[in-house]
Amino acid sequence: MFKKVQIIILGVLGVLITAVVIGLLIHGGNTGDNISSGDNSNIFESVSNLEALEMGLIDGDTLRKDNGIEEASDDNKEEAPVSNIKVSLSLRSIQDDIKIKFLNSSTEKLIANVPFNITVKGKDKTLIYTDEDMDGIIYIPFVSAGDYTVFLSDITANNTNYSADKSQTITVSDSIEYAKVDIKDEMKTESQINVAEEDTKVQDVDETTKVEENEEAPSEEIPEEESYDEDISDEAEDLLAQIESDVAQEEASKAAMAGASSGTITAPAKPTVTSDPVYVDAHAGSKGIDVSKHNGSIDWGAVKNAGINFAIIRCGYRGSSSGALVIDPMYTANMAGAQGAGINVGVYFFSQAVNEAEAVEEASVVLELIKGYSLQMPVYIDVEKSRGRGDGISKEERTAVCNAFLSTIRNAGYTAGIYSNKIWFEGMINTAAFLDYKIWLAQYVDIPTYTATRYDMWQYTSKGSVPGISGNVDMNVLK
To answer: How many Cβ atoms from other residues are within 10 Å of residue 425's Cβ?
Structure first.
């Protein structure tokens, strides 16, 4: 009986043990299914996020955060390389001003497109300036006489560090020295400017004898017969001339017919202007031309063969709007061509200076451009109406500008002269102050009526014709 009970107990225990083992096996299988299911869920979620990122529904930062990925530190990010440039401060003062130029110490070229900041420390004040137009130059006018120290603030721009090794000191004077200044890195070509705004002198328009509205009148009244309508076109002018000629011929024919009917024939009067001693004297002298880019490409051999003895060539101009110092694009070619043909040469610069300091700059441009050339004719400053910045100054200021230019040229060892027209010589400049210089008069008439001072050369027309030059050209006679 006891044995039978033991067998029953062992059977029950066996069943229980078997049940427990089976239960554990079933529980373990379910756990594995859950991990697998979790892994598959994560994979599908990742694919979904990538698709969402591609569609722009979430950003990369959100994706990294949701998946427990930390953003890379700044130290691990790839950055653009940074270069270092040492800046050399170039200071200049002509009169009551300071010009600061920022130069690359290695290349000695102006550094543009950087908003440099400088501190200018004087005896009584300290001021801060910025190169707002980022042309590599800061100009400070109206500076009191004294010593000034200029400091450059370090700056990073365009992945480049800019810094100066040391400060610079300059002395500002209220007097002016008429001497050449370093202007090389400020001279521009026409490709660097807006030509339509800067080269505004009107070509082939006679403003030598007409007084316009709101223009300062000359010191003496202009005779009525010398007035000229500048608004007339060349075609209209030619047509009027033809009409006048036809009318004159008709009247002469009528006069001849009237004389024939009365038994007396009177020949039409012949032109006598070329035999007039006053006319002959006015036009006597060496013949020459003045040219600029507006005359285009010139055949200088043909010009020489036509009997032209000299040429005054425009070397440059100051911009009417910005005041930029610009080289005439045909200057080098014209100088080489004229000298190669054996024609005597001089140069002129079209001024838009508004003060003496700017006039010294203009003269310095000329002195830089004529280096290496042998001039047989003077260096002229050209002052006349341009509808630009130079028109707005007073007669006294304009006279001072001309004196500064001419003095600087003469002090450099060259013969200097001034060009303008009858109206401006009589009313816009104190021409008597320049009797020690060459005076070049423009007045487009048969016989000049300018008598305020002597003149050494006369530009008698802007519509001359010379073989080797297409279109009109200015004609001159040297007394």
So the answer is: 29
Phi, psi of 162 (to 5 degrees): -115, 130
Strands 160-164 and 155-157: antiparallel
What value does the CA radius of gyration of the chain take, rounded to a whole number of Å? 43
Q: How far apart are CA 413 and CA 429, in angstroms?
A: 25
Q: 96, 143 in Cβ contact below 8 A?
A: yes
Cα 369 to Cα 364: distance, rounded to the nearest angstrom: 9
Prediction pTM value: 0.72
In 281-408 the beta strands, taken as DSSP E runs, fall at 286-291, 310-318, 325-327, 344-350, 379-382
Which residue's entry shows tokens 């090389």? 184
Residue positions counted in the chain:
479
pLDDT, tens only, 27-55: 554 444 433 334 444 433 444 555 554 55
- Distance CA(346)–CA(223), nearest Å, equals 33
DSSP secondary-structure letter at 269?
P
Tell me the two tokens of residue 313.
């060539």
Whether the Cβ atoms of residue 319 and residue 326 lie closer than 8 Å to each other: yes
Where b means 16+ CB within 10 Å and e means fewer, 225-246 reads: eeebeeeeeeeeeeeeeeeeee
Using CA atoms in the order 333, 338, 340, 345, what is the torsion angle rounded to 10 degrees? -110
Ramachandran category for residue 387: left, alpha or beta (phi over 0 → left; psi -120 to 50 → alpha): left
- Please state, in angstroms and as integers, the Cα–Cα distance from residue 412 to each residue in 180, 252, 318, 437, following that order: 8, 60, 21, 14
Q: What is the dihedral of CA 240, 246, 252, 256, to 10 degrees?
A: -170
The values of phi and psi at residue 234, to 5°, are: -60, -40
First to last CA, the chain: 163
Q: What is the pLDDT of residues 414-447, one digit of tens each?
A: 999 999 999 999 999 999 999 999 999 999 999 9
Q: How many CB atoms sit inside 10 A of residue 286's CB?
A: 14
86 pairs with which residues across the strands? 163
Residue 324: what are its φ and ψ, rounded to 5°?
Answer: -65, 150
Average pLDDT estimate for 175-181? 97
Picking from 197, 121, 252, 228, the residue whose alpha carbon sits closest to that of residue 389 is 197
**What would the two tokens of residue 66 be?**
């949701």
Which strands sit side by side in the sheet containing 98-104, from one edge to the other?
137-140, 98-104, 83-92, 160-164, 155-157
Question: How far is Cα of residue 379 from the mean position of the Cα atoms in its chain?
Answer: 22
